[in-house]
Amino acid sequence: MSNVATHALVLLRAAARECQLAAPSFSDEQATEGLAAIDELRAHFLPRPASASSAQAAAHLLQLPLEILSVILSMLGTRELARLAASCRSLWCDDPTAPLPPMPPRQVGLVETELRRRAVVRGLDVGSSLPEGALSWVPYLLKRDRRNAQMRQAPLAVGPELSMFVDTEGRLLTCGCDEMDDAFLLGHADEDPGDASIDQPSPVPSMQDRRIVSVASSSDHCLALSADGEVYSWGEGDSGALGHGDRNTRMVPCRIESLSRIERTAVGPNSTSAAVDQSGKLFTWGLADWLVEGVDGDMQEFEEPNGLGHEFDADTKHQLTPKRVEALSQERVVGVALGWGFTLAVTDAGAVFSFGYSRNGELGHGSLTSVELPRRIEILAQTGRRFVAVAAGDRHVLALTEEGELYGWGHEEANGHGSGVAHLGEDHYERTPHRVEAFGRERVKLVDAWNVFSCAVTEKGELFTWGRTTIYKNLGHGDEGPRNEPKRVEGLSGVKVAAVAIGSTHWLAADEDGVVWAFGQRSALGLGYSGPEASAFVLPPTPIPTLRVRVLNSP
Fold first, then answer.
1. Which of 68, 163, 315, 524 has the smallest CB count inside 10 Å?
2. How far apart are CA 427 and CA 417, in angstroms?
């Protein structure tokens, strides 16, 4: 039986289990009709000769009632949809040579219909005409659906001496050292555990009945997003970044009751958090403002906005519950990143907004002026590119276009431009976005940033890192020092990276099969200690045994 037919049969069996649970509510007539339908469906999935092609299997799928076939397509991943479309032209029906509507109307196939349905559900604007450079609707929509899925999923996260994972079953696992400045981030203890540590990825006990799809961690708090759109937080709570309406520390994950139908989350290094719901609303919470010391010997302190995007009065120091960023109410936000005191938001239209404290030009507006409310970065808009993702470190920003071009600004060690470029300021900060030329014609599909480090994953699945190295040799280039231009991690040659998470002490990268490769500080990697003779640092990327995380192509 072909992969297509086998996968469809698995989906039908899953649907049958759901029907069985609802069986008491069926009438006798409904049950009889259902059994008859099952008998007919079974005939379509009987074992066939090995010579049967996937195209033949897809043709048999077309014999199913349209309602059932539509349900099957809705449950397929992007990769399976692509294979199905490639195996059967009847499911594609997208002739790039056909005249545009209405002379005559273009025939729309089932795969395109399903992809358009997914876009509508997420509130994404597909439009009626192909974007410039796209040759056909199905490949364009498949690529966009895959990219959106990649942006939503974050199966890896790292904090100080902490690693977080989402395995293929949707379980939340953590490992590392539990206490960091009184923030208990492993999530395993409901009382003060002291200096507890876990040397291998272990499921968080209180989350065993939840299916997690995304995780995020800062130096003092963590977020986990469930498949149902619920957000759980734990860690140090004094700043209000946990979102529970108080400033209490929580040692195990607790649901943020005021949030629902969430698709993306983010945490910031300066005690802030953010979430984007399915309709594109952006919510932020945590430390509302912070005191900044003067420069050049001036010890005067002054308050600056902390990137929450709200108008606060002078007495508001904390936003204890998630609050919608009303200034973006006319926009549909699809991505968010939090830096040290500033925030970046990407809209479905491809625009990038920034707001918060601008000590080094991180907002991308060309000045050091702080911005309390969101402001579009006009320099990016003038490129004519549609931006789809952003990443923020402590003092730099990366922005990714739909075409796979990477733009960077902020601190020279991590913005990707290298030293000595013409547009770099004398203070070693770039205050306006410029394209990162180091990738040439290579297309980038994923970006991440933390502190003064950056990474990018190309369409080929190659991982590039750059920035300021530490004693943990955390760039993955062996004993090399800091690099201010992207360099491929040779230890992952031949590995197609599908997800990545970076931190000050260690990094994690997952390949397309969900295998996790780790390098940096051993105590946080989940590789075990291997006795007293084991090195404290893991320099070449090393796979974590028995662990598989949930990536797009994992089982």
1. 315
2. 15
The dihedrals phi and psi of 333, each to the nearest 5 degrees, come to -80, 135
Given a cut of 50, the residues of the chain with pLDDT beneath it are 1-2, 44-52, 96-104, 182, 299, 420, 422, 424, 554-555
CA distance linking residue 209 with residue 211, whole number of Å: 7
Q: Is 127 exposed, middle or buried (0-12, 13-18, 19+ CB in 10 A)?
A: exposed
Assess contact for 231 and 256: CB atoms under 8 A: yes
Q: What residues contact 485, with CB distance under 8 A and at least 6 apart?
A: 416, 417, 418, 438, 466
Burial of 102 (0-12, 13-18, 19+ CB in 10 A): exposed
Q: What is the distance between the alpha carbons of residues 540 and 519, in angstroms, rounded to a whole number?
A: 6
The pair phi, psi for residue 424, each rounded to 5°, is -80, 130
Answer whether the bond into residue 104 is a cis peptide, omega within 30°: yes
Pick from 104, 103, 99, 92: which is nearest to 137 by CA? 92
Q: Sign of the CA dihedral 417, 420, 423, 427?
A: positive
Six-digit token string for 195: 């200096």
Amino acid at 236: E
Q: What is the DSSP letter of 492?
A: G
Cis amide leading into 102 (omega within 30) = yes
What does the angle CA 507 – CA 511 – CA 512 come to, to the nearest 5 degrees? Answer: 150
pLDDT of residue 104: 47
Virtual CA dihedral for 425, 427, 429, 432, nearest 10 degrees? Answer: -40
Pair of tokens at residue 255: 């649901």
- Residue ranges per structural domain of the chain: 3-94+106-125+133-145
Dist CA 215 CA 224 (whole Å)? 4
Q: Give the residue from 217, 149, 158 showing the smallest Cα distance to 501.
A: 158
CA separation for the pair 221, 273 (Å, rounded): 9
Rounded CA gap, 460 and 489, in Å? 13
Q: E strands of 308-349, at which residues?
A: 318-324, 333-338, 342-347
Q: How many residues does the chain have?
A: 555
Q: Classify the C-alpha dihedral 14-20-26-28 as positive or negative.
A: positive
Crossing angle for the helix pair 54-61 and 78-87, to the nearest 10 degrees: 100
Rounded-to-integer distance, Cα 263 and Cα 95, Å? 34
Structural tokens at position 120: 């509508």
Q: Nearest Cα to 489, choosing from 504, 469, 161, 471? A: 469
Beta bridge partners of 488: 464
